[in-house]
Amino acid sequence: MEVVYEDNHIIIVNKRSGEIVQGDKTGDRPLSELVKDYLKEKYQKPGAVFLGVVHRLDRPVSGLVVFARTSKALARLNKMFAQGEVHKTYWAIVPKGGVEENPSFTTLTHWLTRNEQQNKSYAHQREVAGSKKAQLRYRVIAGGDRYQLLEVQLMTGRHHQIRCQLSAVGMPIRGDLKYGAPRSNPDGSISLLSRRVEFVHPVSGQTISVEAPLPDGDALWQKLYQTAGQSL
């Protein structure tokens, strides 16, 4: 676990692929518990440590996760996330297609339905029964021989939204077998990174802007990053 920002009210950590943010049916120890252990040891806290989960990342996704250390911060962050006041930027590696590097963003709009049994979302071009509107913006910031690096900004927060919407337009995320990638990544990850988070601190009012490091052990991330240059 890597802490990238910490104060009395908030802690932001860099999640590794394969970690779960909150406990689930697998019984694996979640990131939230690891953060509690870290806080308990660092500050020698007796008894239970408070930690509020305000958002999640899919298990194979890496990058920034924001936790609240106080009930005041939790209530305010929950409201900020619901109102779109927390700005999250993702990077995704997808197969190289017909889209060239472009400083302008393209907006994708779909209506997503969710299959609980499959733990998968499906994209539709128009509203259908049980669907929810999903929007994101993306731009190509680097290209290689076979892959390109996208910057993605979510405009809504739906189940598997980035994975589903990019796949729907012929750009499945590298390693994401569930959404159409031809092969998995060796470490079981998918090439989707919660790269940057920006928001006004819910207590101090200061602007918080934090970036995640690139995933270790995958040279393609570094190669595309170096190619990106002025697009970043």
Mean pLDDT: 93
Approximate helicity band: 10-25%
Residue windows where pLDDT falls under 50 for at least 5 positions: none
Strand-and-helix sequence, N→C?
EEHEEHEEEEEHEEH
The backbone outline, from C-alpha atoms, is globular
Structural class, please?
A: alpha+beta
Please describe the biggest sheet, giving its number of strands, its sense, and whether it closes into a barrel.
Answer: 11 strands, mixed
- Percent of residues in beta strands: 25-35%
Number of strands: 11
H/I helix tally = 4
- Report the span from N to C terminus: 26 Å
Q: For the CA atoms, what is the radius of gyration? A: 18 Å
Describe the fold and architecture:
It is a single chain. Helices cover 18% and strands 34% of the residues. With 232 residues, the chain is an alpha+beta fold. Strands 1, 2, 3, 4, 5, 6, 7, 8, 9, 10 and 11 form an 11-stranded mixed sheet that branches. A hairpin with an 8-residue loop joins strand 3 and strand 4. The radius of gyration is 18 Å and the shape is globular.
Helices and strands, with pairings:
Elements: E1 2-6, E2 10-15, H1 31-42, E3 52-53, E4 62-68, H2 71-82, E5 87-95, E6 106-115, E7 120-124, E8 132-143, E9 147-154, H3 161-168, E10 192-200, E11 207-211, H4 219-228
Parallel strand pairs: 4-10
Antiparallel strand pairs: 1-2, 2-4, 3-4, 5-9, 5-10, 6-7, 6-8, 8-9, 10-11
